[in-house]
Amino acid sequence: MKASELRQKTQQELNQELQELKAELFKLRFQHATNQLDNTMRLREVKRDIARVKTIMRERELKELKEKSSK
User: Fold this and answer.
1) How far is C-alpha 66 from the chain's CA centre?
2) Is 55 helix (H, G, I), strand (E, B) or coil?
3) pTM assigned to the model
4) Radius of gyration of the chain (CA)
5) I want to staple 32 with a disulfide (CB 3.0 to 4.6 A). Which of 18, 37, 52, 65 is the partner?
6) Spans of all domains in the chain
7) What's the CATH number for 3-70?
């Protein structure tokens, strides 16, 4: 998932995406603990996707704060 794709989503869609990624990460960690995980790189990808979503959410939050303070 690219950051440019995430920037096109609304705040609500980003929240939904974050919840889905966290659920997937939980499932992957559980599979890894029980030695059932086939693709260990997927753990890394999901963690990075979560970080991207959180970063974009924070960017928007800071932008809103900046706009409010300049008024």
Assistant:
1) 23
2) helix
3) 0.91
4) 15
5) 37
6) 3-70
7) 1.10.287.310
The CA-atom distances, in angstroms, between 33 and each of 40, 46, 59, 68, 70 are 11, 16, 34, 46, 50
Buried b (16+ CB within 10 A) or exposed e, 61-70: eeeeeeeeee
DSSP 15: H
- CB–CB of 28/43 below 8 Å? yes
- Triad 58, 62, 67: Cα angle to 5°: 150
Per-residue pLDDT of the chain (71 residues; tens, 9 = 90+): 788 999 999 999 999 999 999 999 999 999 999 999 999 999 999 999 999 999 999 999 999 999 988 87
